[in-house]
Design brief:
With 222 residues, the protein is mainly alpha-helical. It contains 2 helices and 2 strands. A hairpin with a 2-residue loop joins strand 1 and strand 2.
Length: 222
């Protein structure tokens, strides 16, 4: 049996059809995979570059998963802190209510005093008081039992003092005051304690708190 003889033009058309079929298969493969380069035979440079980028994208996705887990942990911690804050606010409210609640008693007054030389065993201290007589039996001596009344002959804790100093004088500055000197009288001449420079004269003035008082002789106005 003799073979089929094809002319040159027919062979060229057959090669074109085969090339078209190959291109169609490549296009269908690209459409099905969504990649323009599916193997190193298509484009070695782009294939290995795409493979490296795919690996990097996978690593980034893993990092994103870790970040998402961390965000969830932070959200849980935030929820716990919010709950604690609410608990603290509730405790503050209860404490404020307790502070505002009236207690079973209230302070009426505060009295404090300092006793010189007082101790826990003896509150009398070292202060001394003197008196010539006791007016009643309500004051007791320091005898044991606290029932012995003090007598008029005893002093209360110290010896009596005596006032000493310069004697008081009349208006002239030299005459000592005695029982016979009159300090206030109906007339200036009879007030013996105001003789001399202490007795105001007619026309003398006296200023008190910004008010001036003028002394005049003669009868008082009606």
């Amino acid at each position: 049996m003799s073979g089929i003889v094809l002319s040159a033009s027919v062979r060229q058309n057959l090669l074109s059809l085969q090339s078209t079929a190959d291109l169609l298969a490549t296009t269908q493969n690209r459409l099905s995979t969504g990649k323009s380069v599916n193997s190193a035979l298509d484009n070695p440079t782009n294939f290995f570059t795409a493979q490296s980028l795919d690996n990097r994208a996978s690593d980034i996705n893993n990092l994103l998963d870790g970040i998402a887990n961390g965000v969830q942990v932070l959200q849980a911690a935030n929820t716990g802190i919010t709950s604690l804050q609410k608990l603290i606010d509730s405790a503050k409210s209860i404490a404020n209510q307790a502070l505002q609640t009236t207690v079973g008693y209230s302070t009426k007054s505060n009295v404090s005093a300092t006793i010189s030389g007082a101790t826990a065993a003896d509150l009398r201290g070292t202060t001394s008081f003197a008196s010539a007589t006791a007016s009643s039996d309500v004051i007791y001596s320091g005898a044991p039992g606290g029932t012995t009344a003090i007598t008029a002959a005893k002093t209360l804790g110290a010896s009596q003092g005596v006032f000493t100093g310069t004697a008081a004088t009349a208006g002239d500055g030299t005459t000592a005051l005695t029982g016979t000197i009159t300090l206030i009288a109906t007339g200036g001449t009879t007030a013996t304690g105001l003789v001399g420079n202490a007795q105001p004269a007619d026309g003398d003035t006296l200023t008190v708190n910004g008010k001036t008082i003028t002394f005049r002789s003669g009868a008082a106005p009606a």
